[in-house]
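Researcher: Quick sanity check before group meeting.
Model: Go ahead. Protein one:
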Amino acid sequence: MRTILHNCGEIAHLSTGDDEDPLSGQRLLDRDSLVHPAGLAIMIVEGLIEKIAPSEELLSEYAPWYPTKNTIGDVEVLDMEGMAVVPGFVDSHTHLLWSGDRTNELSMRLGGKTYQEIAQSGGGIMKTVRSTRSSPKRNLVERGISRANECLRNGTTTLEAKSGYGLDLDSEVKLLESISEIDRSMDLDIRATWLGAHDFPPEMGREEYVEHLISEQLPVISELSLAKWVDVFCEEGWFTNEQTEDIVKASKEYGMKSRLHVDEFVDSGGLALAAELGSLSADHVACSNDDSRISAAESGTVQTFLPGTPYVLGKNLDLPIKKCIREDWPFSIATDFNPNCPITSLPLIGSFVTHRLGVDPIASLVAVTRNPATTMFDGEKPRGTISEGRIADMNVLWSSSADSWCQTPGSSPVRATIKNGVIVNSNKTY
C-alpha cells in the first residue's frame, strides 16, 4: 500500500546532519534546518517514508485522480488539512509496571519529609515492591496496557520500560515477562530495562544483594533475553559508584549496555561514572557538575532530564537545559512515569521545559524524539526523524505549527498518531 499524507502543515523533520546522532548546541535553534514549511506531502510505502515532496508533485505522479477519489488500487491519499506533522515521541525513561498506591506520600512531603525520610519510614520504592511482588502477572499486564495506551494517546510511539519493583529473581522475571507481553499486544514499541538494582530488599544485606544481582538475576535475565539494557539507581543512600560499576561491568559481559539513574539528589559523581562506563544515557542528572557533563558529551552518554520528578516532589525546576544548549552538550527529556510521578504525557513534560525553563519548542521536540531515539535502537533502523528511508512513526497535531506540540498542558496536542505507516490513534477533540 502506498499512502500519501497530503496537504501537511509544517513538518518537523529534525533530520539535519547524521540523524543517527543526537543534535546539540546551536543546531537545536536553527529552525529553518529542522522544519519544512507547509505545502509538502509524505509518501509512505510498507511502513517507511519513501518520499517527501510538494503535494502537487506527489499527487500528479501517484494519484492524478485525487480528489475525485481518496483510494484507487494500492494508493491512498489522506488529507492532513494543513496540520503540522512531527516525529513520534520517544519516552526513554519510564517505570511502566508496578502495583499499589503511594498518593499518601504527597501530604508527607508537604509536611516536610524528604524522599529519603519517606523511604526510611516504610514508603517509597519498597512500599511499591511489596505490592508488586504480590500482584498477579495478569493484573500487571492489564495495568501496563492501560498505561501504554495513555502514552499512545499523547503521541508516544516508543517507550523504555524498567523493571525494579520486584527485587528478587522471580518478581523481576515476572515484570520483564509482563513488559514483553505488553509490547506484543500494543501498537507502540516497548523496550525493556532490567533495574534489579533499584533498591535493597529487606531480606538481604547490601553486599549480599549486589552479589545476588550479578550471580543469580543477571544470568537468568540474559538467558531469557528479557531486557535490552541494565540500569542502577546510583545515588547517595542507594547503590554506590563502586557497586554500580560492578553491576554494569558484569552486565557488559552478557552483552547488555547501560542506562543509569545518577545525581538526582546530590552530585555523587554518577554522571562521570556513566561516561566512563560508556552508558547510553545518564538520567536525572539534576545535580551533576560541569566537568561530568563535558565528559558525558565527549563519551557519547546522553544526559536525560526528568522534569516531572522535581515538579511532583515540589522542587524548583532549575535544570540546566539551556546551559546544555549553550555548551553543546547533547540531552534528552523523558517522563520518568512512576508511582510518585504518574505522568504519561511527553507534551506535558515539554510544557514544563518550554513554559517554565524557557527552552525553544523545537529544541525541546528534538529532546523527545531524535535524541532519545539515538539511545534506543542500537542495531535497528532509527526513529525520531521524518526523513526518506526512515520508519514512518509520526504525530499529526491540532495546529499548523510544529511549535504547538508542547503548548496544550492538560490536553493532548495530537490529532492522530501514525506507527509504522498506519494510523493507530485518532483523538476526537482538542
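Researcher: Fine. The other one?
Model: Protein two, sequence then structure:
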Amino acid sequence: MKSNKKLFFFLFFLTAVFISACKKKDTLVGQGVLNPDDYLNGITTDTFDLETYTIEEDSIITSNPPNTVLGSYKDPKFGDFDASFYTQFRLGSLNPNFGDPSQIVLDSFVLALEYAGYYGDLSAQTFEIYELSENLSIDSNYYSFSSKSVNSSNLVPIGMGTIVPKPNQASIVGGDSLDAQLRIHLDTNFAKSLILEANNGGTTFSSNETFLTFFKGLYIKTNNPAQANGQGAALYFNLNDAASKLTIYYKLATIKKTFDFLINSSCADFTHLEINNFGTNIAAILQNPSLGNSEFYAQAFKHRAVVKIKHINKLPDNTIIHKASLTLPIQYQTNYRLSPGISVSVATKLKSADNYYTSLGIFGGFEEYSKHFRIDLRDYIQAVLNRSIDNTGLIISPRFFINSAERIIFNGKNTSNKKKPQLIVTYTTF
C-alpha cells in the first residue's frame, strides 16, 4: 500500500512538472517592461499596440501601365473617382492603299478596348474622345495629374456616347463572337480625313514616326455629372491586347474592308486621375492623423494606410521570431459593389532618414470569412530587431495601386466595431 502511494505521488509530481514546462507565457507589450530573464529559452506570445492613419500620394507615375483605367464612380465613403487616359496609335500597315476615294463608302469608325475587369456598378456611362494636339513620348514619365492639350471637338457623335458597359458579355462583331470589348463609335468624317491624307501621295503613312506627327493620338474620358452615390464603375482595359485598336470599316465599291490603327507596347499612354475626397472622413484624417485610430483608409492611385508598431524595440536583442501575424479587419459593406480587393502590398522606409518607401515584397491576402487581411511579418520584425532596418512603420496599399480603383476601409484600435487590428508575435530568446 505504501509503495502504491509513493508511485502515485511520483507520477503526480512528473505530471505537474510537464504541464509547467509546456505552458506559454502571454504578455502585453507596452503594458510593462519585459524582463529577458523571465523568457529565457521559452516560447512567448505577445500582442503589440498599433497606431494607424492615412497618408496621401501626389506623384504617382501612370505611364504605360499593365491595365489602363477608364470611368467614374461616386463613393459615399471616398468621394468622386474619375479616370481617363491618353494614348498613341500605330499603323496596322505602312502606305495603305484605300483605293479610289469616289468608290469608298464609310461604314463606321470604332475604338475597341479589350476588357480586363471592372470595379463598381455597371450602370450607363457617357464616353467622350478628343484628338491630341500635343505629342506624347514613350520615353517620358507621366503622372496621375499629367494632362495633354487636345482639340475641342468631341469625336463621339451625339447620342452614341452613352453606353452600358458589359465586361462579362461577349461582343458580337460582324457575326463573330469576341472577348468582351467596349466599342465606342467615332465621327466617320475623322476617318475620311485620315483616308484622304493616306491617298494624297505624301509621306504621312510611310512610317510610324511621320504618322505620329499627323495623328498624335486620342484622349478618352467619361462625362457623368449626374451620377448618384454608389453609381458608376472604373473599367479596366488591356491596351496591349491585339483586340484594343481603332478601326475604319468601309466598302470599296461593294467589297467590305477594314484598316486598323494599333495600340501596342511601342505606344505612349498614361492614365489621368481626378479623385475628390472633399467632405469625407479621409480629408479629416489627413488633417488630424489621430482620427485614423478609429478607421483608416487605402485607395488606389491616392491614399496609403500606415500601421506603426509600438514597443517592438522593447523585445530583447537575443530574440528569434517564429511567427508574426498582422490582421487588419475591414468595414465590410453588405451588398456594396466597391469591395476591398483580394490583396494588399507592404512597403516601409528602411531608414528613418529615407525620403522614399521600399517594397518589402510582402503581400497580405483578404480572408472572406473573417473579413480581414492577414499579413506575415516574421521577416520584417526580425530585421527590425536585428537593426538592419528601422521601425518606421508599414505602408499598406491595394496591391494593384496604379492599375485598379480598389479602396479599403480598415478598422482602427478605437473602432466601435468588434474586430480590431492586431499584431501577434511568437518568439524565443536565447
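Researcher: One line on it for the slide.
Model: The longest helix spans residues 2-22.
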